[in-house]
Amino acid sequence: VQLVESGGGLVQAGGSLRLSCAASGLTFSSEAMGWFRQAPGKEREFVAAIRPYSRTYHRDSVKGRFTISRDNTKNTVDLQMNSLKPEDTAVYYCAANRYWSVTYYRSGSWSYWGLGTLVTVSS
Asked: What is each CA distance from 104 to 3, 36, 73, 93, in whole angstroms?
């Protein structure tokens, strides 16, 4: 299984970025997919997740600003990030798991991870 993130970069507060994760080596349409982030000196935290049939979940602090989506024809999962804030600065990781877990917000519930892409939001 390989997950490759792209789309990170430097953006000013209030700006937007779109992250993408390309997946291979798995039956993508059957996988739960997620995004986590880790800021310097902090633990990895849940950002958003999407079930195989596209029901979505977002952490409270990003609701209304971030949107997770998937394209089962391209084996990709995206994270559209709008109205970015300096506190969104982190390395963003794509995650995948064969089965949906009720504890989807825990990093231990996910089997596969990408290497991450850095998002820096300047004030």
From this structure: 18, 11, 24, 14
